[in-house]
Amino acid sequence: MMDVSHPPVLSPSNIGSFAYLTVKDRLPVILTRVIDYLYRERISLGLKYGEAAQEGCKEVVSRLSQMKNEMQTNKDFQLLWSPQPNNPYDDSEIWNQQFESYVSTYGVSPKWFAASWLYAECYMYARIHEALYLCDPLRDFDPFEEQKQKSLVDSQIAVEALTDKVSSICSALSSHTQDQLKQHVLKFFEVSLWGNKCDLSISSGGECCQAEDVFSSLEKLRSNIIVNDSNMLWQLLISLPEDQRDIALVLDNAGFELISDLCLMTILMEAGLTTSLTLYPKTRPWFVSDALEKDLRWTVDKLRSNSGSGGQIATKWSSYLSDGRWKICNSKFWTTGYDYAEMSKLSPDLYSQLSKASLIIFKGDLNYRKLTGDLEWPTDTKFEYALQDFRPTPLLAVRTAKGGPVVGLLPGQSKTISSVDRDWNINGDYGMIQLCTFS
Ligand SMILES: O=P(O)(O)OC[C@@]1(O)O[C@H](CO)[C@@H](O)[C@@H]1O
Ligand SMILES: [Mn+2]
């Protein structure tokens, strides 16, 4: 274990902090939306999933209302129902183990405003899933699916602009100089970065889409990339041996962000900079907009039915998936309340699988929180230091700052940014393309 002294963890016990406001205001709104949605749609869900689902909706509503009350009155967390025999990604044991270890460390049960922000926020999604899971016909129901799908449909113009660009770059690849290719690739990393600006959890499940073509704003946005390791990243990509160009992509949100990620991966594949890709989605409805395997497959199918460049590119995605160059790998570790420094102990198989990749790309703010332990690091802490015991292989974080820690800045940099924008670390307007090679 590295010798790392720890700052405190971000916590909702810190009144007025972003963590506090999330648990006090944003999470109850997300829960209320799910409750209203299930109640409103109970008849149509009954028609779709059978009569028992209609009654089931009422039970789920009652469980979720109970949880909302527990949250708002700062009650103890509960153990999850365990084991969940028909759930292939049953992680209830890990959740209950986290509960027990909290009790043995602190001598009391975790509570909504006393546990860490990361633990509390992740726990809410585990409980939403449990509430549905306990109702047989709704066991696999995703209450956020409609929102995720709508956010993609509403981003159609931006998606078309993106796929047109990918298509024209790919068809001219052989005539590009290495420098031209570099410019294209790095721009697509930026598109994937800004694709993370908007997620449905930060908007408490309110509407969120990419309405305009992001390509035209990249230059203007570049100064908002507060850590930009793009040049080092390019050096790493071009120096990979031909038989070791395997990328692991730990996905974040469905909708425009997912399309931007897959477009980036398409260029890397077509340019030969990547030969195989493993995609890691979530295994339960998560932080409203996070992509599950079925969202990923829906996205590919949806785009495939488009005429024009979108259809062509999604057809490529289908063939990558069917010939095995792209794999989808599900792991229950992503939806536990643990940060990634715990991965080698709690999920050694996942850790060793990730370690074999040439590069792991972590998308989004929550992944960044889990990479850095969600601790209150001074912003000039070295990224490698903040990763603590998580050292699988070179890794890249691509995220906009929406409340989690920020590390790797220059001394004084955060002060300068704050003087321009007080909310720079929560509003998603600032981003990071941050590499750690552990060298
Ligand atoms: O991981 P993502 O999708 O980029 O962001 C998830 C997120 O919006 O959820 C939390 C607020 O509820 C924040 O930590 C974080 O910004
Ligand atoms: Mn997300």
UniProtKB/TrEMBL annotation:
Q: Which GO terms describe its molecular function?
A: metal ion binding; phosphatase activity; protein carboxyl O-methyltransferase activity
Which Gene Ontology cellular-component terms appear in the entry?
nucleus
Q: Name one Pfam family in it.
A: ARMT1-like_dom
**Source domain of life:** Eukaryota
Keyword Transferase belongs to the record: yes
> Which residue numbers delimit the Damage-control phosphatase ARMT1-like metal-binding domain?
22-414
Keywords on record = Hydrolase, Manganese, Metal-binding, Methyltransferase, Nickel, Transferase
EC number of this enzyme: 2.1.1.-, 3.1.3.-
BP terms from Gene Ontology: DNA damage response; methylation
UniProt family annotation: Belongs to the damage-control phosphatase family. Sugar phosphate phosphatase III subfamily.
Role played: Metal-dependent phosphatase that shows phosphatase activity against several substrates, including fructose-1-phosphate and fructose-6-phosphate. Its preference for fructose-1-phosphate, a strong glycating agent that causes DNA damage rather than a canonical yeast metabolite, suggests a damage-control function in hexose phosphate metabolism. Has also been shown to have O-methyltransferase activity that methylates glutamate residues of target proteins to form gamma-glutamyl methyl ester residues. Possibly methylates PCNA, suggesting it is involved in the DNA damage response.
Q: What is this protein called?
A: Sugar phosphate phosphatase
Q: Which organism is it from?
A: Scylla paramamosain (Mud crab)
Q: What is the lineage of its organism?
A: Eukaryota, Metazoa, Ecdysozoa, Arthropoda, Crustacea
